[in-house]
Each structure stands twice: as structure tokens, then as C-alpha cells.
Amino acid sequence: MAKLPLGINLNGERAGAFSPGPLLSIGREKGKVKLTRRQREFLSKFVDLYREFQKPLHYTQVARRLGIGNVTAYEMLRLLEERGLVTREYVITGKPGRSSVLFYPSREAFILLRQTLLDTPIGREWEEARAQIIRTLKEARERDFEGVMEQLLRHLPERTSPLLFMADLITAVMLILHRLRKMAVEQDFFKQLRNLGLPGEKGLNALAGLMFGLAMAERFNWSLSQALLRYSVKFQSYLAGMNKEAKEALAEFTGEIMQIIGI
Fold first, then answer.
1. Which residues contact 54 (CB under 8 A, 6 or more apart)?
2. Which pLDDT value is given to residue 2?
3. Strand, helix or coil at 86?
4. Spatial distance between the Cα atoms of 23 and 200, rounded to a whole number of angstroms
5. What phi, psi does 86 have (nearest 5°)?
6. pLDDT tens digits, residue range 68-115?
7. Could you tell me which residues are beta bridge partners of residue 105?
8. 5-118 belongs to which CATH class?
9. What is the distance between the alpha carbons of residues 201 and 248, in angstroms, rounded to a whole number?
10. For labelling alongside 226, which of 33, 54, 111, 212 has CA 20 to 30 A away?
11. pLDDT at 28
12. Residue ranges per structural domain of the chain
């Protein structure tokens, strides 16, 4: 079985095919696909799992990773399939005459999630989350930000807003650099960050590469390294579909926390 079915890559595009881009509206013949918040959150997490495993998934795998019941996972996948956002395929198992059903997100699922990012306004939720992170950093500065990075990474999987997820992840990465400041100074990490454009909007694109580099550092424990690798892919995907207003807000926020942390 191919890891990426039907030539679909991890961004939901068919290999070698023309991409209509993130502005394409999703539509079935009767209109745009509408999802409840719970359904949208499930779809987003399912797409993340697909990117992580790079192959179709059995509903029990999805249930186990998301901490929900098997029946709930199957019913949600079936509902999304009916709306054209999930596709199933049957794979022959080792037993004669037996097959297993696996699921993967359709191209329309990726387009829908990208469109959600483009349409996301900067509102009260962002301002409250931004203020909370800045307040936490200022309060933790006297104790050298002890425990803040761990807390951010621990709660990252719970973030359903792409913008808030990215804000938490950027803060955690800057705190990792602060923790490894001796190595960062030796390798001119801070100078390189500014050369790449941080904290400006263009510099945000370089952060995923920085996460990958940090994940490879020998001083990291395995679980943190794997988390950074996983989150860097998600970060890139979110950034690619984010509107200009959101990017500007994120860039401004990055500058604020770099100043507080002392980078």
C-alpha cells in the first residue's frame, strides 16, 4: 500500500497536478461544506495525524491518539466521508477474505482547513491569549522562566486555534534558545535569527527550520526532539495558509517575546 494514496501529498495536493491554491472554496453541488466546531476540530486533528503517520489510518488508531471511543471516531469519520472531506480505502489483511477499512483526508479537507486560516480574524481570543503569554513570561523572568516552556509544550495539543498554537510554539522555541543560550551564542543563533528577518513577518518562515535544527541538537531528550519535529510540520502548514493580518500579529508578538526573554 502506498503511503500517500492516490498521489496526494501531505498538503492535500495531487503530485504533479495544478494546485488551485488555498482560496478555492469548497463546494459540493448544494453549496459549501459546513461543519460544527467539534467536527472541524476533529478534522484538523485527523489531518495532523495523517501528516504524522503519512499513510491512511484505521479508526481505532485515530480513537487511541485522540483519546475518544472507537465508535465515536468511526462515526465522525463516516460523517466527514459523507461530506467529501474523508476518503476510505479497503486493505486486504493477512486472513483470506478479510479486509480492513482505512481513512485519509481528501483534498477538499486540506482546502477547507486552509480557508479557515485565511478567514480567521484577529479578535478578542487572540488579544487575551497574547496578553496571558506576555504576563506569564514577565512574572517568570525572575526565576529564569523555569517551567514555562514545559507548560506550553504540554498544552500545545489542546490548542484548536492555529494562531494560538503558533504563538505558544514560538514562545516555547524562544525559551529553548534561552535555555541553550551558551550554545546559541557559540553558533550565532541570535544573529542568524535577525539575518533571517525575525521578528518580522518574513522571518516566521525560518522558524520551522530552526525547530528542526534544535530537534537535532544532542542535548535534547528524545520526546522533546520528536515533539519539535512534529510541531514544525504543523507550523509550516498553518503559516502557509495564514492571512496577512494574522502573520503581522504573529510577527509583532514574536518581537515582544524576544525582547522579554532577552534574545
1. 3, 4, 10
2. 42
3. strand
4. 24
5. -135, 145
6. 999 999 999 999 999 999 999 988 876 666 788 999 999 998 888 777
7. 86
8. mainly alpha
9. 6
10. 111
11. 41
12. 5-118, 121-261
Neighbours of 132 (CB within 10 A): 12
Residues facing 57 on adjacent strands: 103
> What is the identity of the amino acid at 69?
G
Neighbours of 139 (CB within 10 A): 11
pLDDT tens per residue across span 201-257: 667 877 777 777 777 664 556 778 878 888 888 888 888 878 788 888 888 899 899
The three-class DSSP label of residue 220 is coil
State how far the Cα of 49 lies from the Cα of 60, in Å rounded to an integer. Answer: 13
Residue with grid cell 481513512, as numbered in its chain: 103
Residue recorded with cell 551558551: 182
β-bridge partners, 104: 87
> What long-range pairs does 241-246 form, CB within 8 A, spacing at least 24?
241/22, 241/113, 241/114, 241/115, 241/117, 241/118, 241/162, 242/117, 242/118, 242/120, 242/162, 242/163, 243/117, 243/118, 243/119, 243/120, 245/121, 245/122, 246/117, 246/120, 246/122, 246/163
Q: How far apart are CA 167 and CA 172, in angstroms?
A: 9
Residue 162: pLDDT band with limits 50, 70, 90 = confident
Pick from 34-38, 136-140, 193-197: least confident: 193-197
Q: Residue 16: which pLDDT band, with cuts at 50, 70 and 90?
A: very low
The x, y and z cell numbers of residue 52, run together, are: 504524522
For residue 162, give the C-alpha cell: 492555529
Amino acid identity of residue 103, one-letter, is: F
